[in-house]
Design a protein that fits this description.
heterodimer, A: mainly beta, 7-stranded mixed β-sheet, globular, B: mainly beta, 5-stranded mixed β-sheet, about 45% strand
Chain lengths: ~110, ~110
């Protein structure tokens, strides 16, 4: 089954404790992206990657890092989490296209930073 | 970035057609118009996309204005399961994608 898998789905952590949210897709997609969703602010893009070793900033990259060492994985790293990073996070992937590619989303990871 | 504008919320009666509007006055010639929806407690899911011509699939229809500065997602017969937040986005390629806040659709039984 084609899917985007995120882990963990739920996490409560404390300020400053490094954490990684993993994202894996089994569709051989080149494009992968991270979003955060906050009440009243919709979906905002954090980082995206057009292929292995190619990443770029989205609208809200501050406080986050990403890496793309393998095509299927695109982890989101919070080196020193802060309470304002409490949010619902979504990973998405699609084929590389001129704009026709359908985005497939994971089920989301709800992160709480105390 | 090309931006889209959607109403914050809409209501529709069950089994009636629903027309969800989207304005994208700064659209460029290579931008595709995509629609996604997000059901409660789920990630967004793809609905439909188009470039210039109207499009139909099993979920919905997409009507695109001749000047491409607006589009309308049409749900032909709304059901309670169609209650969701609907996002209209423009996609040129593998670039930064802006989703915005979407339209919250409420279906009245």
């Amino acid at each position: 089954e084609a899917q985007v898998t995120q882990n963990p789905r739920y996490l409560i952590t404390v300020t400053g404790k490094k954490l990684t949210v993993t994202c894996s897709q089994n569709m051989n997609h080149e494009y992968m992206s991270w979003y955060r969703q906050d009440p009243g602010l919709g979906l905002r893009q954090i980082y995206y990657s057009m292929n292995v070793e190619v990443t770029d900033k989205g609208d809200v990259p501050e406080g986050y890092k990403v890496s793309r060492k393998e095509k299927r994985n695109f982890p989101l790293i919070l080196e020193s989490p802060s309470p304002n990073q409490t949010s619902l996070y979504f990973c998405a992937s699609s084929v590389t296209t001129t704009g026709t590619g359908e985005l497939f989303f994971g089920e989301g990871s709800r992160l709480t930073v105390l | 970035d090309a931006k889209t504008t959607q109403p914050n919320s809409m209501e529709s009666n069950e089994e009636e057609p629903v027309h969800l509007p989207c304005n994208h006055s700064t659209i460029s010639g290579t931008d595709y118009i995509h629609w996604y929806r997000q059901l409660p407690s789920q990630g967004p899911e793809y609905v439909i996309h188009g470039l210039t011509s109207n499009v139909n699939n099993r979920m919905a229809s997409l009507a695109i204005a001749e000047d491409r500065k607006s589009s309308t997602l049409i749900l032909h017969r709304a059901t309670l399961r169609d209650a969701a937040v609907y996002y209209c986005i423009l996609r040129r390629g593998n670039e930064k994608l802006t989703f915005g806040t979407g339209t919250r659709l409420t279906i009245i039984p």
